[in-house]
Design a protein that fits this description.
OB fold (Dihydrolipoamide Acetyltransferase, E2P), 8 helices, 5-stranded antiparallel β-sheet, alpha+beta
Amino acid sequence: MSSITFTDITKRFDDTVAVDDLDLHVADGEFLVLLGPSGCGKSTALRMLAGLETPTKGTISIGDEVVNDVEPRHRDVAMVFQSYALYPHMSVAKNIESPLVGRGEDLDRAARREMIERAATMLGLAELLDRKPGQLSGGQRQRVALARAIVRQPAVFCMDEPLSNLDAKLRAQTRAELVKLHENLATTFIYVTHDQVEAMTMATRIAVLEQGRLQQVDDPRSLYARPANEFVARFIGSPPMNILDGVVDDDLGSVTVPGGRLPLDGTWTGLTAGQPVAVGVRPEHLHEAADGITVTVQTGEWLGHEQILTLDAAGTTLLMRDSTDALDAAPGAMLSLAAGPDDVHLFDADTGDRLTEADR
């Protein structure tokens, strides 16, 4: 079994708490992404799993075994770093072979060659085995680093921002290759990134961290549709969710926000008239309507298939994604915008936590 469990894990560096009481279970064969901004503790959590850092408190288990005191080389974990960390004087074949050397197993030359060729073929490197890293592109070097991890046949793959050094086209290509690789290997992947596009396109589940604390764990669609708090709402989505100061109206069927009102769908429980709330609306859920929020266009960014408008609503900045190409997006233009009741999110004005909803 290659399930992973973090139980009450805390990691301190002097007075800095890098990871704070992390409780997280990763199922066997899952592709889990640790997502968050720089300094949120995601890489530290990964390094503790790999044995490169020691928890200050708590336990880490791989399968049924607590591995806190197990040496890294005995944890059956393969690590892929942001830096390719290839041996420049060795061929691709020798780089891929390197984890097999000194494993204490009786692997003869033929067996090692078969494992090398299998890993290389899986990643499209079969024609490059005799080359040196200096003769490869960035994408090819990253695939060699992945092949070097695969050849070990580990229980868990740990990947720390492995695509950060690739250009946009190669990142998209390698994301697809990683998803396919995960399907073929059926092994547990733990992947660290600050890039939400990587997380949303690859993960079976995403764990969002901020300042060392776990904010939410869910599949990408659920995370996007029902963020647990304002931080997740702003972090997931590009452009991010708009958050406005609001007040629940007397009939509990709408909420007043800068520039007008937005409707509520009736599933929110425990609301009271005059209650201050934080109101979230994603940019793509705003549309033109006769009776909505009055806004003024500030700027527009045309991206070919859509435009991103920056708007002013009574002193509050909003973003809108428009793919109709029918709006008057000239700076200074006045628009009336609305959102459907199902597309309005409510958060506690003080804590930022999502308010309670009845089952939809």
